[in-house]
Amino acid sequence: MSEHLSFIELMDNNNTVVDSKLFVNFRNYSTVYLSLTADTLFYESQENTYLEALATIFRQLPEGYKVKLQNRVAVTSGKGNHFIDITELVSLTYLASADDSVLRFEIQCLFNDTQYSAEATEDFSIALQKLKNKMNVNFNICAFCENGDFMSTGGEDLRHGWYCLREVMPRERLLPWFEREDEFKKAIPNLSAFHWCPKFSLSDKEFI
Fold first, then answer.
1. C-beta of residue 95 within 8 angstroms of C-beta of residue 80
2. Given the DSSP bridges, would you call strands 66-77 and 148-149 parallel, antiparallel or unpaired?
């Protein structure tokens, strides 16, 4: 998936909403192009990862702005399967430990008449794991799939940086990623954490 388009809501400090489009293009040589577009505005950036490009977009926006995305996913609870809507709020916040402004992720959903939410700075997967733990369900998405993997370089993007290894056989999943880089070269790159395909197979991986 080299391109991805999301219809989003851009929110200011007063929660005034502007319907917008967030376009992501994963280019060659490990660069990601982003554009955020509405009727009267246009912002763009190009960085090494989706998260870096998104942070650059936020630094162009007025302070306090948020991006709101909607994701529809399947979850399994007990013996039942359910479809739920997960709201993803992204903003830029100052982090004292880093002495810099970083991305903040807040994800929310309504499940079995209960509202759940979780948040994290810098690492989307931590917020996602917290939400999963609170809900006590299995998420049927790339982030928790046996075929989904990432290269743990220290700057990995666990929002749109997943590799799908469903067509890579044989695989050596017990080896560290740097000892099987040839597998990643054959894999399908740049998948959303919320993506699903018919080859989904539940994994027991955890991020916190």
1. no
2. unpaired
